[in-house]
Amino acid sequence: MIKRRGELARPERSPELSELARPTRKNSLRLKDYDYSLPGPYFFTVCVFNRKEIFKEQDIRGKVIEVFKNLAGELGIDIHAIVIASNHLHGVVTLPDDRRITVWQYIGTAKVRITQMIIGQASLPLRDRIWQRSFYDHIIRDENDFSQKAQYIENHPIKEEGDIYAEWH
């Protein structure tokens, strides 16, 4: 049973995280007083800069999945589902109980590794930015919320009407 989390259960920000210097946006998408290192499930969406379709090829999508899976293994994060469209991706992950890792540390590190992998591909002429700044995340609050996000990912290939790669764990 997933405990209800989010706006109704906002703990105070931990001292370790508040000491980190993070750039902030004027219109931040993050909950102001929520500790994003709390264990539990999160949904996220990461978009390519200017919606460039850099994930069209099956082998690239497979490598992107591998980056997310390998990093999750290193950090003790559980990946429940991930879907990659030609210019964005969605995922549902659960942060571990025993580590102080945040959703943005996981996504940020994955973005760096994927950028390094893509730049190393001679077949992709990318000289510009690869990722949009930041990403969208959603704190999954209960089992119903988890189910809705999982269904969104499951139905995403139909919505996109294209060759999309999804993986379930």
Characterise the protein shown here:
- The chain is globular.
- The protein has helices at residues 15-19, 58-75, 103-119, 143-160, and strands spanning 40-47, 78-84, 88-95, 136-139, 165-168.
- The two termini are 18 Å apart.
- It is α+β, with helices and mostly antiparallel strands and 169 residues long.
- Strands 4-1-3-2-5 form a five-stranded antiparallel beta sheet, with helices on both faces.
Offer a few descriptive terms:
169 residues; alpha+beta; Alpha-Beta Plaits; 5-stranded antiparallel β-sheet; 4 helices; 5 strands; 34% helix
Overview in brief:
With 169 residues, the protein is of the alpha+beta class. The protein has helices at residues 15-19, 58-75, 103-119, 143-160, and strands at residues 40-47, 78-84, 88-95, 136-139, 165-168. It has four helices and five strands; from the N terminus they run H-E-H-E-E-H-E-H-E.
